[in-house]
Every structure is written in C-alpha cells, then in structure tokens.
TrEMBL record:
A Gene Ontology BP annotation from the UniProt entry: DNA-templated transcription
Stated name of the protein: LysR family transcriptional regulator
Organism: Klebsiella pneumoniae
UniProt family annotation: Belongs to the LysR transcriptional regulatory family.
Residue stretches making up the LysR substrate-binding domain: 31-235
Pfam family, one: LysR_substrate
Single GO MF annotation: DNA-binding transcription factor activity
Length: 248
C-alpha cells in the first residue's frame, strides 16, 4: 500500500512482548511464559506457596501453575517443567539438586502436657493420645533414635489424619501428641503455640529424606525454568537455615 512500509519478521527470529517486537535470541534470555511446578501437597502448602508472591514480584512475566499432588507424575505426559520430591534416591535420568532435609518431630500444646503429663521416654507415649498419619498400621508404630540407640513404640489415639495441616490443627486443639514434618510445625513452634516433645530423640519417619528439585534436562532450558531453579535454590534452604533441627 502506498505510503506505508512493511517489515517481514519471521516468527523464529522475533517474539512479541509487551506490545514490542524483540529478537527471539533476546527473548530466550528473559524469564517469561508459563511454568508448571509439581510438589507434594504439604510441601506446596507450607513451603512453596508462601514463596510465590516474592517470585512474581521478581519475575513479572512468568506465570506459575502449582500442582499439589502426592502421586508420581511424568514430566512429558503430564506437562511438568519442574518437580519437588522427598527422596534419598532421585530417579535415574533426571537432573536435580537437594534443597533441604525433611525432618519430623512430635509436638503437643502446653495445655495438653499440663493435663496429661510430659513424656520423657518414647515408652511414655503409650499413656498418651497420639495423632499419627493413619494410612497403614505401621504409621502408629513410632520409631526414635538417640546416641545410636533405636526404640519403637506402638502408639494409640482417637484421631489420625493423612494431611499434615489437619494433624497440626488437631495438636493445636489439644487432642494429643502429633507427628509433623518440621516445615509444617516450624511457625507454630516459633510462636509458642505448640512445643516439641522428646526433643532429645530423633523421630524416624518413612517419609523423611531430602527435598529434591528435579527437571528432565539441562539442554536448551527456558529462562523461566532457570529463574525458578535459582529462586528456589536461594529461598528454600534459607527457610531451613534459621530453624532448630531435631536432636540427632
């Protein structure tokens, strides 16, 4: 058309962002687009979700789909970019890094302990109402370790729940002594809402391990994935750095 000039911009060389056309090579270095992050439910609720607001401020062009699921997912079939898993042995073929150890504690309120007494040994738990995971009978057999010595005690209680937030609330409601991941109990412990029971003993849970950040490959990694990896590598270990770990 007379009086107007048109410039051909092949899609493989240019990309539109904020109403401006920029070279594709530059666009690949800018963290932008949608990222899908798969996390265990409790980790997502208590560890990752509280960090997301600051991530959005730092990377305003990245959208996040946070999938809170405890079942294993396939990176390709389920469209997962990054995954957090609690394990000591990540799946072969995946890239990743450990972010923090997952430890468990047993806790109660001061009011509960004043009414029912404070246990001083694992065997004392037999006289208490204990709130366990409740998925299998083994979840009520609590195992402890101290100075190389291991003790197992069969616990009993009127309430069990396979969600950490529910067990935390039950403990806060003075229903008994509950088993909790430290990342779930940390804030309530710091606020004095609950106290750790048998702090000199390490509570051994089958759901312990390291929290690993995993991805399928390093080649041609989008900038949004690198941004999330760097962000979680910075912020998640910092959450654990200031806490008091259970006695070993």
């Amino acid at each position: 058309m007379p009086g107007k000039r048109y410039i051909s911009m092949p899609s493989r060389c240019w990309k539109r962002r904020d109403r401006q056309w920029i070279p594709q090579a530059v666009a690949q270095t800018v963290a932008q687009g949608k990222l899908t992050l798969s996390v265990p439910k409790a980790v997502g609720r208590f560890v990752i979700h509280p960090l997301m607001m600051a991530f959005f401020h730092r990377y305003p062009q990245v959208d996040v789909c946070l999938r809170l699921e405890d079942r294993p997912l396939d990176f390709i079939d389920d469209g997962i970019d990054l995954a957090l898993r609690i394990t000591d042995t990540p799946s072969p073929g995946l890239h990743g890094k450990p972010l923090m150890p997952i430890r468990h504690v047993i806790c109660a309120t001061e009011a509960y302990l004043q009414q029912h007494g404070t246990p001083y040994t694992p065997q004392d738990l037999r006289a208490h109402s204990c709130i366990s995971l409740g998925e299998t009978p083994a979840d009520a057999r609590w195992k402890f370790r101290r100075e190389g010595k291991t003790e197992t005690v069969q616990t009993y209680g009127r309430y069990a729940a396979n969600h950490t937030a529910v067990r935390l609330d039950a403990v806060r409601q003075h229903l008994g002594i509950g088993s909790l991941p430290l990342f779930t109990a940390r804030e309530a412990l710091a606020n004095g809402d609950i106290v750790q029971v048998l702090p000199e003993w390490e509570f051994i849970s089958s759901y312990s391990g390291d929290l690993w950040l995993l991805w399928a490959g390093d080649k041609h990694m989008p900038a949004r994935m690198r941004a999330m990896i760097d962000y979680l590598s910075e912020t998640v270990p910092a959450l654990n750095a200031g806490s008091t770990e259970p006695a070993k």
